[in-house]
């Protein structure tokens, strides 16, 4: 009897210890396992920025994209806490950060979902950190969605290639979609690359919009097909071209040999054929 | 009675349709006139700017004082840019008019280079004065031709909308006065190009030159197929199509492509040595499983696997579930900006989705890097004192004129913005300052949030 009791007692004791240790070993952060580095986007970055802001290192928007502001903030934090300064949020950095700061996830997520401007500084009242919207109707209308999404939020910023805006990318995606819809992916990247090669070329306008809207340059612009809604693939193709991919082999012209009306275009030195288009210098 | 009502309704109907048709016609005319006016404005401005430019080049020749010459050059440079923009607004694209645009761009390049130079210390040399004289004559010819076309246009009330039509339907092209006029202009400029060969006017192809770094034996088609199979990671060669490049290609390549369901791959291999210039694989990328950081390790692995040595990561960015990395060649601690390679890694399983090494194969070589004449401290003094410098590197970059120069590279912060600043390590010139952004508010998500 007592023997059984003893065993039971020991088991309970062990479980209690187990619970205790697992509890204390688990740091109070929601970070995933990943090493967060510059250029990353997602919820981990939101938490990173919020925690850095809590400690006063980060003064930018909590937008979920690891840009330069976050990079310098993280490096300052690593410097102040005597860690190796590498600008990477690895296991040690995340742990130190979590023990030094607090993170009110629900507050941050709901703010992001409501689209309000907010901050997450430590020791400041939350109501002062959020610019609440003047029209209450909107807030109540949003309430449902807010509650649904309270446990997740998308970053409110995106990475864009240096010197380009999402709108430039969208415009190019429209042109690529109008010109090369139905081509293979690489054919779309090549068309996007031709637009960029023209921007670089001395014989064409010096901006993306100038090149696209140059009269008679693209049939898709002339017949209005440029205003069809482009698919995600066109956008991806444009990003690839901007990031340096040029399957066209540095072409500045292309044409469809079945429909080309101009003799002159045939006189250009041809580089290669991708799908229906012949690319030329 | 019923008949009269019917007649009444029909009459009303016809009158209505007539009125509607008339309105449509009016609107169409209004739109056409708008478009025509835009063309006319671009055209007349072009002639005006050419004329003005010719004058300015003339006065520049006569100028003796160096203080005035620089602003004059800037003025000419500005006019070339205006004129180029005017040409870009005319419906001439499918007509060979690019020699003229190139001519304009060359004048721009030349005047820019002289304008930014310290003419006090470094006055125009004989060759450059000669070039300027040539430009004066040539722009004069060009101006006359354009003024001539302009006169005909005004005299005969010619419309650019007709040019548009004439260019669209090839047959009538022979008759169109404007088109002919522009062809004459273009012919003239073609002649200039030859007489300018020996002058200080260089083409703007600073970054484009032949491929310098293609070693190895020429490979044949079979070998290319095999190499393509490895690089694209395809099991059987049946799905692979290999094609030769045409005579317009900068460097002869084999283009290898394959299609397998939704997955599609494309690869350009140089015939000389079988080096991969461009690789692209397109497929659905699933949910993110690996981090951007792990993707970077993968990317480094791929570089090693394809025998690129001493490559340092330069930027990393996540676009949806794809990691895009760029690498720079590092020669004894100096980053060489022109020897760049970009890689794309799928963040679902770490597969290589793309690689582009055109810059690397075009520029890469072992360089003779001189000892810097400025110490890093001296270079820092050349940086705006308000910028807080956080990181420093040695680098080789292409400067404004397209020469490779050794620089100190500083990453610094000013008012929450990050800047990349290049200071020439030999003479302390501030070669380039770039503001780094790379992120932007997601307008799509913002508007959704507010809806």
TrEMBL record, chain A:
<feature type="compositionally biased region" description="Low complexity">
    <location>
        <begin position="137"/>
        <end position="153"/>
    </location>
</feature>
<keyword id="KW-0961">Cell wall biogenesis/degradation</keyword>
<dbReference type="InterPro" id="IPR036366">
    <property type="entry name" value="PGBDSf"/>
</dbReference>
<keyword id="KW-0309">Germination</keyword>
<comment type="similarity">
    <text>Belongs to the SleB family.</text>
</comment>
<keyword id="KW-0732">Signal</keyword>
<dbReference type="InterPro" id="IPR042047">
    <property type="entry name" value="SleB_dom1"/>
</dbReference>
<dbReference type="InterPro" id="IPR036365">
    <property type="entry name" value="PGBD-like_sf"/>
</dbReference>
<keyword id="KW-0749">Sporulation</keyword>
<dbReference type="GO" id="GO:0030435">
    <property type="term" value="P:sporulation resulting in formation of a cellular spore"/>
</dbReference>
<keyword id="KW-0378">Hydrolase</keyword>
<protein>
    <recommendedName>
        <fullName>Spore cortex-lytic enzyme</fullName>
    </recommendedName>
</protein>
<dbReference type="GO" id="GO:0009847">
    <property type="term" value="P:spore germination"/>
</dbReference>
<dbReference type="GO" id="GO:0016787">
    <property type="term" value="F:hydrolase activity"/>
</dbReference>
<dbReference type="GO" id="GO:0071555">
    <property type="term" value="P:cell wall organization"/>
</dbReference>
<dbReference type="Pfam" id="PF07486">
    <property type="entry name" value="Hydrolase_2"/>
</dbReference>
<dbReference type="Pfam" id="PF01471">
    <property type="entry name" value="PG_binding_1"/>
</dbReference>
<feature type="region of interest" description="Disordered">
    <location>
        <begin position="119"/>
        <end position="153"/>
    </location>
</feature>
<dbReference type="InterPro" id="IPR014224">
    <property type="entry name" value="Spore_cortex_SleB"/>
</dbReference>
<dbReference type="InterPro" id="IPR011105">
    <property type="entry name" value="Cell_wall_hydrolase_SleB"/>
</dbReference>
<feature type="domain" description="Peptidoglycan binding-like">
    <location>
        <begin position="42"/>
        <end position="97"/>
    </location>
</feature>
<feature type="domain" description="Cell wall hydrolase SleB">
    <location>
        <begin position="182"/>
        <end position="280"/>
    </location>
</feature>
From TrEMBL, chain B:
<dbReference type="Pfam" id="PF20769">
    <property type="entry name" value="YPEB_N"/>
</dbReference>
<dbReference type="InterPro" id="IPR014239">
    <property type="entry name" value="YpeB_PepSY1-2"/>
</dbReference>
<feature type="domain" description="Sporulation protein YpeB PepSY1 and PepSY2">
    <location>
        <begin position="180"/>
        <end position="370"/>
    </location>
</feature>
<feature type="domain" description="Sporulation protein YpeB N-terminal">
    <location>
        <begin position="27"/>
        <end position="162"/>
    </location>
</feature>
<dbReference type="InterPro" id="IPR048402">
    <property type="entry name" value="YpeB_N"/>
</dbReference>
<feature type="domain" description="PepSY">
    <location>
        <begin position="374"/>
        <end position="434"/>
    </location>
</feature>
<dbReference type="GO" id="GO:0009847">
    <property type="term" value="P:spore germination"/>
</dbReference>
<dbReference type="InterPro" id="IPR025711">
    <property type="entry name" value="PepSY"/>
</dbReference>
<dbReference type="Pfam" id="PF03413">
    <property type="entry name" value="PepSY"/>
</dbReference>
<protein>
    <submittedName>
        <fullName>Germination protein YpeB</fullName>
    </submittedName>
</protein>
<dbReference type="Pfam" id="PF14620">
    <property type="entry name" value="YPEB_PepSY1-2"/>
</dbReference>
């Amino acid at each position: 009897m007592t023997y059984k009791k003893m065993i039971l007692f020991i088991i309970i004791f062990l479980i209690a210890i187990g619970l205790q240790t697992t509890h204390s070993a688990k740091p109070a952060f929601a970070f995933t396992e990943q090493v967060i580095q510059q250029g990353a986007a997602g919820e981990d970055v939101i938490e990173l920025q919020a925690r850095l802001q809590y400690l006063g290192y980060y003064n930018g928007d909590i937008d979920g994209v690891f840009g330069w502001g976050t990079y310098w903030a993280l490096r300052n934090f690593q410097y102040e806490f005597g860690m190796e300064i590498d600008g990477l949020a690895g296991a040690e950095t995340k742990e130190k950060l979590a023990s030094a700061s607090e993170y009110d996830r629900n507050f941050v997520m709901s703010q992001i979902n409501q689209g309000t401007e907010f901050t997450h500084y430590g020791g400041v009242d939350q109501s002062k950190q959020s610019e609440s919207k003047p029209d209450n109707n909107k807030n109540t209308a949003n309430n449902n969605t807010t509650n649904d999404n309270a446990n997740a939020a998308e970053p409110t910023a995106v990475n864009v290639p240096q010197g380009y805006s999402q709108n430039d990318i969208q415009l190019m995606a429209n042109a690529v979609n109008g010109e090369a819809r139905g081509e293979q992916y690489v054919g779309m990247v090549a068309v996007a690359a031709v637009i960029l090669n023209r921007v670089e070329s001395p014989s064409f306008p010096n901006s993306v919009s100038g090149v696209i809207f140059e009269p008679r340059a693209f049939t898709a612009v002339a017949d209005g097909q440029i205003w069809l809604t482009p698919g995600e693939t066109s956008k991806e193709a444009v990003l690839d071209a901007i990031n340096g991919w040029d399957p066209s082999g540095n072409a500045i012209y292309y044409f469809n040999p079945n429909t080309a009306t101009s003799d002159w275009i045939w006189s250009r030195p041809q580089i290669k054929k991708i799908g229906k288009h012949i690319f030329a210098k | 009675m019923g008949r009269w009502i019917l007649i009444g309704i029909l009459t009303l109907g016809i009158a209505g349709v007539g009125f509607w048709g008339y309105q449509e016609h009016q609107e169409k005319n209004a739109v056409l006139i708008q478009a025509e006016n835009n063309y006319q404005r671009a055209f007349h401005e072009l002639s005006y700017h050419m004329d003005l430019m010719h004058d300015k080049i003339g006065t520049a020749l006569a100028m003796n004082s160096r203080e005035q010459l620089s602003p004059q050059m800037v003025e000419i440079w500005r006019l070339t840019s205006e004129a180029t923009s005017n040409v870009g607004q005319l419906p001439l694209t499918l007509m060979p008019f690019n020699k003229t645009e190139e001519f304009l761009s060359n004048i721009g390049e030349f005047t820019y280079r002289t304008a930014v130079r310290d003419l006090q210390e470094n006055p125009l040399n004989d060759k450059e004065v000669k070039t300027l004289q040539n430009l004066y004559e040539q722009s004069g010819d060009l101006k006359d031709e354009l003024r001539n076309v302009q006169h005909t246009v005004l005299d005969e009330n010619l419309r650019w909308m007709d040019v548009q039509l004439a260019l669209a339907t090839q047959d009538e092209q022979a008759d169109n006065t404007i088109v002919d006029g522009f062809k004459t202009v273009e012919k003239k400029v073609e002649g200039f190009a030859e007489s300018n060969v020996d002058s200080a006017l260089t083409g703007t192809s600073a970054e484009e030159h032949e491929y310098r770094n293609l070693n190895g034996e020429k490979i044949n088609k079979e070998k290319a197929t095999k190499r393509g199979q490895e690089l694209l990671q395809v099991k059987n060669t049946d799905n692979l199509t290999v094609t030769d490049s045409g005579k317009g290609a900068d460097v002869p390549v084999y283009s290898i492509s394959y299609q397998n369901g939704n997955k599609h791959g494309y690869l350009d291999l140089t015939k000389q040595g079988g080096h991969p210039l461009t690789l692209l694989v397109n497929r659905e990328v699933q949910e993110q499983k690996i981090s951007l950081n792990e993707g970077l390790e993968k990317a480094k692995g791929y570089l090693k696997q394809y025998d690129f040595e001493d490559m340092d990561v330069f930027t990393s960015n996540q676009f949806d579930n794809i990691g895009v990395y760029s690498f720079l060649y590092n020669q004894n601690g100096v980053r060489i900006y022109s020897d760049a390679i970009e890689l794309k890694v799928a963040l679902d399983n770490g597969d290589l989705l793309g690689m582009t090494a055109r810059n690397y194969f075009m520029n890469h070589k072992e360089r003779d890097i001189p000892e810097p004449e400025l110490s890093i401290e001296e270079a820092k003094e050349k940086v705006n004192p308000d910028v807080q410098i956080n990181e420093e590197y040695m680098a080789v970059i292409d400067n404004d004129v397209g020469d490779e120069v050794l620089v100190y590279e500083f990453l610094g912060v000013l008012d929450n913005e990050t800047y990349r600043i290049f200071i020439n390590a030999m003479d302390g010139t501030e070669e380039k300052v770039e503001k780094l952004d790379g992120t932007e508010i997601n307008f799509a998500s913002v508007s959704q949030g507010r809806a």
